[in-house]
Design brief:
The protein is an alpha+beta fold. The protein has helices spanning 35-42, 48-54; strands at residues 13-17, 20-28, 67-71. The protein is globular, with a radius of gyration of 12 Å. Residues 25-70 form the LysM domain. This is LysM domain-containing protein.
């Protein structure tokens, strides 16, 4: 089984996650990106739930070009 290559993000700011200030990185959504795909790419640093919470997402659909905050919680 081939493992996807992980990408490490660098902190660009902070945001609140469940009333706790956490470091975040900026990420611009590309065509074809999904929450699951972002988790695979950044799984050593974040979770799908953390991404959804910090960005106040109510669905898993992402819009290309939108900027997301990726919480660096792991």
């Amino acid at each position: 089984m081939k493992m996807s290559k992980q990408t490490l993000l660098k902190q660009t700011g902070t945001a609140f996650l469940n009333e706790v200030e956490v470091p975040v990185a900026a990420y611009k959504v590309a065509d074809g990106d999904s929450l699951y795909g972002l988790w695979i790419k950044f799984r050593s640093q974040t979770t799908v739930g953390a991404i959804m919470t910090v960005n106040k997402l109510t669905t898993s659909e992402l819009q290309p070009g939108k900027s997301l905050k990726i919480p660096l919680v792991l």
